[in-house]
Each structure stands twice: as C-alpha cells, then as structure tokens.
Amino acid sequence: MVHLFGSASNPETSALPLPEVVVELGQLFVDAGHELSLVGGPVRDLFLGRVSPDLDFTTDADPDATIAVIRKWCDNFWEIGRAFGTIGLRKGEHTIEITTYRAEAYDPDSRKPVVAFGKSLEDDLFRRDFTMNAMALRLPSLELVDPYGGVKDLHAGVVRTPGEPSASFSDDPLRMMRAARFASQLNVTVADEVAAAMTDMAERIEIISAERVRDELTKLINGKDPRTGIDLLVETGLAEYVLPEVSALKLEIDEHHRHKDVYQHSLTVLSQACELETDDDGAVPAPDFVLRFAALMHDVGKPATRRFEPSGAVSFRHHEVVGAKLVAKRMKKLRFDNDTIKAVARLVELHMRFYGYGEAGWTDSAVRRYVNDAGPLLERLHRLTRSDVTTRNRRKAERLAFAYDDLEQRIADLQEQEQMDAVRPDLDGQQIMALLGIKPGPVVGRAYKFLLEERLENGPQDAEVAERKLRAWWAEQPEAAADSTKPLDATDAASTKGLS
C-alpha cells in the first residue's frame, strides 16, 4: 500500500492509502512512453479519507496502445467500452478502467454521446461533471492536478462545474441528477449557479434513458441524506420529470391549514425511516431502498383523494390504495425490476393498516392477517409505520408508539406459538385433491384459500377438524353436485382410498 501525504493545497491531509497497483500501472505507461493519471472519484475519495472501490484512470494512449501496455500485466481485460475509449481490466482484487483523454459532446436531441479523443489531461478534466471530480494524480509521481479548484470546493462542501453549468448539463443532462445525488451522498450543497442551471434546463432530463435516471435516483435514495437530494430535485423542477408524484405533494400545502404539509411530512418520514433501518439483528440493514422509497412515496395518493368534508375536515379515503397504483406505475416507467416494484407498492398499500389497531387491540385473527399480508415485508412495514408518526403532540406520539409496541409483542407471541412466519392451511394441495377426489385446477385453489382463511381466523387446527370443515365447504360448491353424478376413474379412486 502506497501512502499519499498532504500537500500545500491540502496540508491537513494525513497519510492516505493507495493500492500498489496504481503506481505500478503508472510506471508501466511511462516506460511505454505514455501518460497515465488516476482520476475522478478515486482522487476525490482520497481527500475524503476513504478508499474508492473503483479505480479509474485516464491516458493519452489510444485503446490499442493501452491494450499493448496492459496485456501481459493484467489477469484479464475486456473491450466493451472501446467505442468510448475505455478498456477494462482486472489485476488481483482490483477492477480497473483506463480511458483515453476525451473531448465529449452530446447531440442536443440524442441520448448518446459523440466521443472525440482529447490531447491533454487538463482538457479531459474540463469535460468532467464537477470540480471535485475534475482532479487527477499523475503517475507514478503522485502529482496532484487540480486546475479547477476541486480540493477547495470539496472542503467547502460545494458542488460546482469546471466550466459553465449550462454547457456541462447540455453535454450530459444526467449530471443534474448527479448533483442531487452528491447532495445526498456527500452532505454538500449545490452552488447557486448550478442550481439555477438545473432549474432552467430541467426539461433536458427527458432525453436521458429511464435506466440511467433510475440508477442515479437509487443512489440518491440510498445516500446519507436523501431528504436533501429529493428537496433539490423538487426545488429545481427536475422532480416534475422524474418523480412528478412527489412534486404534486408540495402542491398539497393547504393555505387554510386544515391538514399538515404532506410534502414536508413525507420528507420527515423518509428521514425517520433511515434512522430505523439497522437494528440489533440486522433485519433491515442500511441502506434499504425499498423501505426508503416507500417512505418517500407513501402518501402520493393524497392529492387524488383529498376531500373537504361538511364538517370542515379534510379526508384522504383509500389514498394508500391509489398511492400503491401510482407508485407501481412510476417505477415501471423508471424500469425498476418487478420484485422491487411489488415490494414498494405493497408497503405503500399497507402503511395505514395499523391505524385500525385501537386501544382494545386486535383479535388473534386480525394479527395473523396483518402478518400474512405483509409477508416478507413485515420488518420493513414495522419501520415504515413507526416512521409515519410525525405529530408534534407528544401524548399522541407516545400513544401510537405504545400501541405499535403492543402489536409487535402480539405478533411475537403468536409467532412463537404458531410459527406464523410460515402460515399455511392445515391441509396441503395434495391432501385437498385426495380428500375431495378432484384433479388440479381452479377448484383446488379455492379450497386452499378457504382453508387459509380458516387458519388465519382460528389458528392451527387438527387435521380431523380441517377435513370436516373442508367437506362442509365442498358440499356447498356447484362442482360437488356435478361430480356426484360421475364415477371416479381408477386413478382418482386409488388416490382417495382410505381417506374418505
């Protein structure tokens, strides 16, 4: 491990670790007559006192020359990014990308960059997104190259662009999302001129693919302070194109103060959910995108369901159901995977369920249904529900917390008694078919559902009791009357022998 020591531009920096392969690779390029510099995020992270998981380099060598230098040195390499001047490689435990100096511009109407190779390190740094990422270490000398004041901005906690923000965002509109992501991840603010350009050019984000926007949004939500990042998206108007449902919450501010500010409430729930993520048993380790995004989006159904009652009160009936549909629709547009979409939408749909838990508590069957409906999302639902309490009324907050403590204890007690995490009917599908003498099909599913309802309502039952109830249910089904006129075939008769 090589250690980089403080310099005049950063005198307080103590010894910082740098993998040996960095200097070793730099020497290989110099010996071959080329330049090589560590660049971007890895350099920024050195000044933040951490080692970046990625190692990105830039060079004056073209891709063919790069391959000639690294071919015998690396464990393996790949050329997937060759069109953009990038060669990837692996050396030991390190994954490395080496990119030829670039001068890059975007067609105003295209999502894809037009790539031209540059001639100098300084020009390459100028085309990067922000000054804190426009720093490099020349190798193998470890000379810091910081022509645009990246170290100064990093220590000031300010996001700036090397050139005019409008030019940078015109080249790659996704950089506007990245500015908000940095605000979340690094606890930094965005310079006034950067925020102004984001506001003026927000519409440009529409030319970026949904997948790239999704990836930046996910990183923002999973940052240290997602509230700040989301607020920046809303204030600059970017959210109107990326998360219009969240922007709509801000329009829900009621000038007559008949209900709380839904937008600020949602941001508070998001922050509180982050604080509740990691517990002793690691049930919801941080960062958890599903919990965080559900917290942000849990009330997006309110604008569509707001009603002013004759009494003067404001209601949002079934906003959780409407919200779940809106969340699923938005996430599909952003190309999230189906499992993530279903999980977030389900949490939004269930987030009000607890409020039926009165001072008298729930019946055992109601508790079972709560657990069954939440399924593998139960631990997240616990945290979302607790995060949703933002009232300033201390007594009300304490009463709700006590009620949820009671519900969680009831769940724990029933789980211990009944193994509720694996709730199943008292008879399985094979037993149902054998007992009723039926073949696989929709009727088996209905019978299974009936027995599951019995299990949730009454808890575990003996097989004899379950069989008796199933027979009684079957006697009322139209298929039973139809089947009673048909003789069983040999296979069916054999499968039911001894079980009738």
Quick summary of this structure?
This protein is of the alpha+beta class and 500 residues long.
Structural description of this entry:
- The chain has 500 residues and is α+β, with helices and mostly antiparallel strands.
- Among the domains are: 2-156, 2-Layer Sandwich (Beta Polymerase, domain 2), CATH 3.30.460.10; 429-496, no CATH class.
- Helix content is 51%, strand content 11%.
- It has helices at residues 20-31, 41-47, 63-70, 121-126, 150-156, 165-171, 174-186, 192-200, 210-221, 226-236, 239-242, 244-250, 262-275, 289-297, 302-305, 319-333, 338-350, 364-374, 378-387, 394-418, 429-436, 442-458, 463-475, 478-483, 490-496, and strands spanning 2-4, 16-18, 36-39, 55-59, 76-78, 86-91, 94-100, 102-106, 113-117, 136-138, 143-145, 158-159, 189-190, 307-308, 314-315.
- The strands form 5 sheets. A 7-stranded mixed beta sheet has the order 5-6-7-4-3-10-11.
- β6 and β7 form a beta hairpin.
- α7 (174-186) runs parallel beside α9 (210-221), α13 runs antiparallel to α14 (289-297) and α18 packs across α20.
- The radius of gyration is 30 Å and the shape is elongated.
- The termini are far apart.
